[in-house]
Design a protein that fits this description.
The protein is built from 16 helices and 13 strands. The protein has 407 residues and is of the alpha/beta class. Helix 9 packs across helix 14 and helix 12 packs across helix 15.
Length: 407
């Protein structure tokens, strides 16, 4: 089959905060091959404003705050957008966005519907949500799921019970060029933050939400300070827990040691400030911060959850600890502070690992190839008696159908 048009790919999200998922979307908007694809972005106006000039100028941007099926007018507006732009590929990010958009996409006869779930949904409660009945039902409207890590793929198959034939692994990647300055000496940030030149600095970058585990890190810092009283912590990111975390720092008597600096777009500058980095999450998809940190040759302590363990390999590219264990996290941080030579060795190995396996170019290439192949397959006439997407529920385990298998 030959291409005689550009394929219109619409990325849809309902989030308003800018974090790892949103950086993933921006990466794809920048990287889509314009010879084959025409990109469209539909998201809340608050996120459009946070993206600002980072959105490529040729991307059609449509602000829409479609957050609930109760907002039926937004549903009709979304359908009008699909028809106006003659969307060929509807790609939603996270289950809640897919829950709203995928059925509408099917009703509007969008040829290819894709979902990237990004993370394990640790927060779910109640029988319907925790058993993923709704996910399997709505999964009938989705042609393919892109998992951002092997762990994410196993979760979709083994816990959600989605057909393995629909699951494709394309690992998250990073633009390494924008991190070059992170390997240079820090700027005047230490002085601006009120730190002394020789104070060791820990950086954690992520939304201030329960998932990210900042409470555990603050508790761990209490023990670290007993051996390293000059240790300082910088938390870069916004979120609903900021006031609570500031109060927790105050209760621990650490107001002089902890800084909350809000969302920061210039990641390289903050990584340059850090002596080591920490990712204390309870769950992840495949965290961009871990890739950025190791690419910047920073020693890292992270929790061994989901796709994090595919980036931070314990005792090889960093140190990992169980989630929710402040004493074990403190011990790992103290190990790196006590042994700078070992910390540097891990950081060098980490940089080599992520440069080989988690580049932006690799993610973009695999995504471009996936869109082309999947869209062209959808154009082929279905053979008589062939199974529908909803029929293929029998195989939940075994070999993952992957665009990229784990090395």
């Amino acid at each position: 089959m030959t291409m005689n048009k550009r394929i219109t790919v619409l990325h849809f999200t309902i989030t308003e905060a800018r974090g790892g998922v949103e950086e993933h979307i921006l990466l794809l908007l920048r990287g889509l091959d314009r010879r084959h694809f025409r990109p469209v972005l539909v998201c809340p106006m608050a996120l459009v404003e946070k993206f600002g000039s980072d959105i490529p100028t040729d991307v059609a941007v449509v602000p829409l705050a479609f957050r609930s099926l109760r907002h039926w007018k937004d549903g009709f507006q979304f359908a009008r957008i699909l028809r106006k732009y003659e969307v060929d590929v509807l790609h939603s990010h996270m289950f809640q966005a897919s829950r709203l958009s995928s059925p509408i996409g099917r009703i509007c006869d969008v040829p290819l519907i894709v979902e990237t779930p990004h993370v394990r949904e640790h927060w779910r409660t109640g029988w319907v949500k925790s058993t993923y009945v709704l996910d399997r039902l709505l999964g009938c409207f989705v042609d393919h799921f892109i998992a951002v890590s092997q762990a994410n793929a196993r979760y979709l198959i083994e816990e959600k019970g989605l057909p393995q034939s629909k699951i494709h692994v394309i690992r998250n990647g990073c633009n390494f060029n924008r991190l070059d300055s992170a390997r240079k000496a820090p700027s005047d940030l230490k002085r601006e933050l009120g730190f002394e030149p020789d104070d060791p600095v820990i950086l954690v970058l992520g939304r201030l939400e329960p998932q990210k585990g900042h409470r555990v890190l603050l508790d761990a810092l209490v023990f670290v300070r007993k051996e390293f009283p000059a240790i300082r912590l910088v938390c870069a990111g916004d979120g609903g827990l900021r006031s609570e975390l500031e109060e927790r720092s105050r209760a621990h008597g650490m107001l002089d040691s902890v800084r909350f600096v809000g969302y920061q777009a210039n990641v390289a500058d903050w990584l340059a400030l850090a002596d080591l980095t920490v990712l204390p999450s309870f769950y992840e998809g495949l965290p961009l911060f871990a890739i950025e940190s190791l690419a910047s040759e920073k020693p890292m302590v992270a929790t061994a959850v989901d796709g994090t363990a595919e980036v931070v390999l314990n005792e090889k590219t960093g140190l990992t600890v169980p989630p929710g264990k402040p004493m074990e996290m403190a011990a790992a941080i103290q190990r790196l502070l006590r042994d700078p030579t070992r910390a540097k060795d891990l950081a060098r190995s980490g940089r080599k690992w992520v440069l080989e396996h988690f580049s932006e170019e690799r993610q973009v290439q695999l995504t471009n190839e996936f869109y082309l192949r999947a869209w062209m397959e959808r154009q082929q006439p279905r053979s008589t008696g062939s199974k529908t997407a909803c029929d293929d529920q029998s195989s939940k385990r075994g070999t993952i159908s992957a665009v990229e298998q784990a090395e």
